[in-house]
Amino acid sequence: MEIEAVKSVGLRKVYNSKHSKESVEALKGVSIDVKKSELFTLLGPNGAGKTTFLRIISTQLLPSGGDAHVLGFSVVNEPEEVRKHIAVVPQDVATYNNFTPWEYGYYFARLRGMDSVEAKKMAEEALKAVDLWDLRNRICQTLSGGEKRRAIIASVLSSDADVLMLDEPTSGLDAVARRGVWSALRELIGKGKTILLTTHMMEEAEMISDRLAIVNKGSVVACGRPDEIKALVKERFRVVINGEFKQLSSYGETAKLGDRNIVYLKTQGEVIDLLRDSLKMNLRAEASPVTLEDVFVKLVGGLNGNGN
Amino acid sequence: MAMGINKIVKDTLIIAWIKSYPDFRRNPLMLLLLAMISAIPLFFMLMFSSGGNVILHGLIGAMVSSVAFAGVMSGIQDISWDRYVKIREMIVAMPVRPASYALGIALAPLLISIPSLILFGAITAYLGFLNIDILLWIVPALLAVWAAMSTMGFMISTYLFKASPMLLNNLSNLLGIGFIFIPPVYFSEAQLGGLSWISIIIPTSNVAGLIRSYFGLLSLSTETVIIRWAVLIVMTLTFVTLISLKSKWRES
User: Fold this and answer.
1) With bands split at pLDDT 50, 70 and 90, how would you rate the model's confidence at B50?
2) How far does the CA of residue A88 sit from the closest CA of chain B (Å)?
3) pLDDT of residue A177
4) Based on the domain organization, do A11 and A104 belong to the same domain?
5) Which domain holds residue A59?
6) Are residues A139 and A221 in the same domain?
7) Does residue A117 share a domain with residue A209?
């Protein structure tokens, strides 16, 4: 039987406050399997427990209950073995201003035990992967926010670790830079690496994940491939209508976004009926398949969503 | 076992290099400034005092302050900065031992202070005060004050885990000034009269006194020298013990 890259069983984390008797249960028994050579995403709103999960898996934080294994090694009892196989980009990590992207790639590879020649090779590959090769000798102080973040990501890519863990790696990046990072991550999957990342960006989760788990309030709400997750709701289509449309709820479930209305529908026939009626009322309407965001909002609760 | 020690030493040197070389290379003027801070009291002593040994007192003070300031700075500022920028989190998740990280962080400013130490040592030698016998005592004494001040800095940053980097930064500057400019580091403890025992319990003035005795500026009995070394060692070990009781490589 093949060992999972990451396997958590009933992982719990309770933060106790020293100043009050209140405690916060950040993880409520999270069980997740991440297969080897898979890009697995933890998708959830802020405060859902994604970072706590990642910090436990990357041996930075002890759980309050349960255990997790990385390539068969327990994060609770064998952290040193786990650390040989992982590399981490924490959330909101900043750079040393006097460092260059080259130094990030090279020295972090050296810290993982590579010799100078190997570290140089890995640093070069990593910097090219995140499109920073031309800026390799610029100090981070002079780089843009996105370039700094890519320098940090390059340090992880140069590690040659089996399992990469990235906490919101593309936050703050523009669309082009984000796609550059996505491309680099997908290439690593092609090379047999496993990636576990967190994000609250639906597009990111849908675009690059092999599988994902939606996490909310410390629990896994749904887990599977993006298409499987989308199939969890019975509606297949959404129609966005600009303007006032009376008795819209008679067509299906609705959500209101200011002067726009979203209607969720099950069949193509229902979509065609609504589009025709909208046109009769001289309203602009647009139909498309439901997005991961629609499903996410429904599952975790939010705008007109029932949640939980 | 030997492999493990090799890895610890190698990682220590890499971390020390990471934390010193880029600053050294890109901000040489800042390093010059740090050396100048240690030399400022020496300058004033030369301006406003007279007497053959004044310059040697000042040079001893400058050497001790270079190393002591480096120690307290690394223990507090570098650790809190690494926490703030989350580089520490990246390193915790690497196959790097906590000892390598702590030693590397402590060693880095010592490397940065080497140019100023060489400068002050060269001036001392040029003036005819320094010989190889004295040097063999000065180097371990400076290493001892570096160890005491570094571990004290680590202890403070360990116990003030949740303090802001700005507060810790100011604290380290205050401690640096408090340990370097107030006790008898640039001047002889003999000037304290009956209170000269205070200099033994402060690592900087303790070492400055030891070095003065090696230069023949201060008369210390063999017992006193042994007590001073013992105080330094016990103080460092106490700080290490306190750190190990509180510090956590992995948070709980």
Assistant:
1) low
2) 6
3) 79
4) yes
5) 6-230
6) yes
7) yes
In a domain, A294, yes or no: no
Q: Do A68 and A118 fall within a single domain?
A: yes
d(CA B248, CA B251): 6
Asked if B93 and A59 come within 8 Å (Cβ–Cβ), the reply is yes
Give chain A's mean pLDDT: 89
A55 within some domain: yes
A180 Cα to chain B: minimum distance (Å) = 22
My answer on whether A149 and A277 are in the same domain is: no
Q: Bigger pLDDT: A186 or A1?
A: A186
| Domain ranges across chain B | 28-83+110-246
DSSP 8-state code for residue B191: G
**What is the rounded distance in angstroms from the CA atom of residue A7 to the CA atom of residue A68?**
5
Instruction: Tell me the pLDDT band of A303, cut-offs 50, 70 and 90.
Output: very low
Helix (H, G, I), strand (E, B) or coil at B227: helix
> What's the mean pLDDT in B138-148?
94
Question: What pLDDT is attached to residue A93?
Answer: 83
Statement: the pTM of the whole predicted model exceeds 0.95:
no
The CA distance from A104 to the nearest CA of chain B, in Å, is 9
In a mutational test of the B interface, the residue from A60, A70, A75, A115 whose CB has the highest number of chain B CBs within 10 Å is A60
Is B162 part of the contact surface with chain A (CB cutoff 8 Å)? no
How many domains are there within chain A? 2
Instruction: Retrieve residue B79's tokens.
Output: 């650790």
User: Are the CB atoms for B203 and B118 separated by under 8 Å?
Assistant: no
CB contact under 8 A, A83 and B94: yes
Rounded to 5 degrees, φ, ψ at A161 are -70, 155
Regarding whether A210 and A64 lie in a shared domain, the answer is yes
Query: B11, B89, B249: which to substitute to probe chain A, counting the most A Cβ within 10 Å?
Result: B89
The pLDDT of residue B52 is 64
Residue A1 belongs to a domain: no
* 3-state SS string for chain A: CCCCCEEEEEEEEEEECCCCCCEEEEEEEEEEEECCCCEEEEECCCCCCHHHHHHHHCCCECCCEEEEEECCEECCCCHHHHHCCEEEECCCCCCCCCCCHHHHHHHHHHHCCCCHHHHHHHHHHHHHHCCCHHHCCCCHHHCCHHHHHHHHHHHHHCCCCCEEEEECCCCCCCHHHHHHHHHHHHHHHHCCCEEEEEECCHHHHHHHCCEEEEEECCEEEEEECHHHHHCCCCCCEEEEEECCCCCHHHCCEEEEECCEEEEEECCHHHHHHHHHHHHHCCCEEEEEECCHHHHHHHHHCECCECCC
Chain A environment of B86 (Cβ under 8 Å): 90-94
Contact assignment for A90 to B86 by CB distance below 8 Å: yes
Q: Does B166 touch chain A (CB under 8 A)?
A: no
CB contact under 8 A, A86 and B22: no
Question: Could you tell me if A270 and A215 lie in one domain?
Answer: no
